[in-house]
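Co-fold these.
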Amino acid sequence: MSRAAMRVLLIEDDREAASYLVKALDEAGHTVDHAADGEAGTHFAETGGYDVLVVDRMLPKRDGLAIVEDLRRRHDHTPVLILSALGQVDDRVKGLRAGGDDYLTKPYAFSELLARIEALARRNRPGDVDTVYRVGELTLDRLSHVVTRGGAEIVLQPREFRLLEYMMRHAGQVVTRTMLLENVWDYHFDPQTNVIDVHVSRLRSKIDKGFDKPLLHTIRGAGYMIRDGA
Amino acid sequence: MTGRDTHEAAFGTLGWFGRLVRTTAFKLALVNLVSYSALTLFLIAYISNNTATLLDRQLEATIGSEINSLAEQYRRGGLRQLVSSVELRSRRPSASLYLVADYSGNTIVGNVADLPLAVLNLPDGQPTQVTYQRLDGDVSREFRAVVRVFAMPGGFRLLVGRDIAERQEFEAVVAEAFQVALVVMVVLAFLTWFLIGRTVLKRVESVAETARRIMSGDLGQRLDVTGSGDEFDNLAVSLNRMLERIEALMNGLKEVSDNIAHDLKTPLTRLRNRMETTLREARDDADWRDAVASSIGEADELIHTFDALLRIARVEAGSSGDSFDDLDVREVLADVGELYEPVVEDAGGRLVQAGDGPLPIRGNRALIAQALTNLLDNAIKYGLPEEPGEGSPPVRLEGRVADGEVRVTVADAGPGIPEADRERVLQRFVRLEASRTRPGSGLGLSLVAAVARIHGGRIELGDAAPGLAVTLVLPRRPEAERTGGDGDHGGRDD
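Predicted complex below.
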């Protein structure tokens, strides 16, 4: 997997959860700094140089949202993932209004967290302004809405287009089912039936069928990834 | 001693009377008393003043005409005729005063005994009030009269007056009326204060007493409604509604904790036992991996159930914080339909969307969407055959407006739910298969019911012949009537 190593700041007061995350992120090839309370977190964040911040909402000494608001006031646009046990829509809205870029509800799977922070780090890079996404011989033109593979046009339904667009924007990164449900369908709950799988497999049959090299991969236990190469 | 203490001390010993003094009724009665007294005072003063002026004018007119007529006598027959005329009139019993005096003020004729001399020197034609004594009456008594003097040649003067006893009597009557009115008002004010104060106090006390009982844990208590339809009744009805809601919420909360205790403890115990067994018996890496993987699966299931429970509780509490907007359920149906169409197809069925026109409601898009996905999840899980056979059974997703209600139906062609069980499945954790082999927490319909309730609607379970038809009935947004009839033309609301 082609992952760029990131510098991550984790602000989390639960010691066990924090050490678990530090270890797991470290194993995923990222460098992690950990702050155990709001004040230390603010101090760390001010020094800058992080690719992503992972901030717990309820922290001793200083609220997580206050840290993010502070950051944004200083025009620091480092991507922030807010972690919280509060997961209702209004909680999310509050978190995102405070300046968070993404919101993950506890308890969560590490694969979900990793996928989300990698997607966030990517967002901060200048490459995102491209109007045409390319993965191998697959291209997606965001302006003309034309998708081609090997020169042949692939006709997609509007929702399939948005699904592919989201995945190609995060090419080379794991995209979870929840991320797709939230970003492509704007639903913030978990349907019992795995609806996303069905949509992805339909998309896959359109872009991969008849070609030797599959581009859309299922990552076991995590989600999906679109990438060139095995 | 603070002002309040003094207040307490002053009224404390008086018991309920003390409390009565502090009531709003007392203050109202006092304000009423003061304002009505002022009004009465003004009215009486106004009337008596005007009446007095009128009487004065009448008096003066009478005197004036008598003087004129006597002056006429004098002109015609000189002093002699005047004197005889005055003499004649003085004898008649009346309230009139007559006097003819010579230049030195000596009485020639008349019925006035004693009169201040200065009066006779008054300028001609000026009516004046004087005190006098009557010749024919009790000499010691003093009377009051209005008089006018008419000067004649030779220093003779004619005085004509009229007693004002009647006027004084009238004034006395008015003054008395005012006093009586004042007394009556004070008594009435006291009475109102006392009666209102006591009723108000009684009702307030009953409210306070009920509140005390509720606080001590008896949530079933309700305030008395007398049926009089007054403000107290309205208040009591509103408060009772609030109490009902609180009781329902408390019961819901209790139910959730019971359910958590009951339904989450079992899988937790299972999880724990499995881990313990693994710890004891696992021989190799593969065993460990299997055990951990299944534990993660179990934990995920637990989290899912827990989330669903919390969501239902929050929706029922109406504190989900999710705001209500004007929305067209038709669009939600289209969205959800789009999401589920391939899923239904993959499960061996086909999704049929029916109905057209807008379905305007006031509600929360996310909650409605979730309710619909829950219903579709159920339709796929229970309404489609496990082994796809011939044909693809339909899952109908239909939205229409009927009787001012928006009715969204999800119907499958499965085995349905027997009539007797339909009420039961709306409760939390109720699943019709006792074995619980099929996936699901038994919370799906509970959430749908909660979503319906928070939108002021309900959920109806019916027979789709064959299959189950679950209908989410929501109140139609009334102001949408103006923009589109029963929805055969556009009018999209976002």
